[in-house]
Each structure stands twice: as structure tokens, then as C-alpha cells.
Amino acid sequence: MSSYEEHSHRKNLFSVGKLGYAKGDRPAVDCILCGVRDKLEIVPNLTIASTDLSIVSVNLFPYNPGHIIIFPKRHITTYLELTEEEASDIHRLTQKTMRILESHWRVQGFNLGYNLGKNSGGSIPHIHEHIVPRFPNEAGFLDVFANTRVVIYEPYKMLEDLKKLWNEFE
Fold first, then answer.
1. H or E stretch including 47?
2. Is 119 annotated for ligand binding?
3. What is the pLDDT of residues 73-82, one digit of tens each?
4. pTM of the entire structure?
5. Total domain count for the chain?
């Protein structure tokens, strides 16, 4: 293995809750996102806003501050199952989310995308889009020396902050 290959994979520092989640310790429901939709008490709910078709939520284990997921209320597992109305709704919500993050958090870039299927890194069998804000000078000490990222913004505080902005932003 070349030196580049040895150092090209980012390490992750997990919170205690994330480590259990990554190992499969999750609420006993058929679908986590349907549990969010149905407001099941055993499922952590970080919903910022919803429409008739979609839900906007803070990611429970964010890659960066402001990491949001948007998903259809209808349980579907593939992108091709999205109706035009659902796709349009998710698109509209994505734009609103990006505008809020740009105007209030000085975000200067985004990664947007879907992890479709287990081979792409998808761990939830319910289609959802990730919006991951990117910030200037993001690389810190651990990024540079250990190729590791630590996220220090607690998801429930992020939810509180984003809910206020969502309701104020038009």
C-alpha cells in the first residue's frame, strides 16, 4: 500500500451514542425516519420543519455543524420512487435550508447528496438527502495530523437554533 493510500482514509471519533448506533444499537422500529415522521417516543426527533410531503431534520450524528437531512414522509428506498411533487418539495426545502445556513452561519460551501444503498454508505433504508455545510479553514489540528474530524456542535442545540431561524426566514 502506498503512503497516500495509507493516509487517505479519514478516521472518525464517535460519541458514545454514535458508536452504539453504528454497531446497530438503534430503536426497535422498522424505519428510523418513519419513526421520526410518526413521532414515536423511542426515536430521537430533530425535526426542524415539515410540509405535507417532506421533513427537514438535523442529522443526529452530524459531520459538520448544520448537517441537515431532508426526506419524504412516504417510505421509499430508491431515488426513482420519488414523485415529481416529492422531488420538487425536497428541492425547495434544500434551497431554503441552504439560504438559512449561508445567511446566518457564514457557510461558504456545501456537499449535497444521497447515499443510495448499502454499497454507497447508506445505513437507513429510507431515501434522504444530506446537506453538509462546509466552512472556511475547516481543517483543524486533528484534521491535519490525524486525518480525524471532531464535531463539537450538539445536535439538540443545533435543532433549537435552526428551528428559530427556520420560522423567521422567508
1. strand 47-50
2. no
3. 999 999 999 9
4. 0.77
5. 1
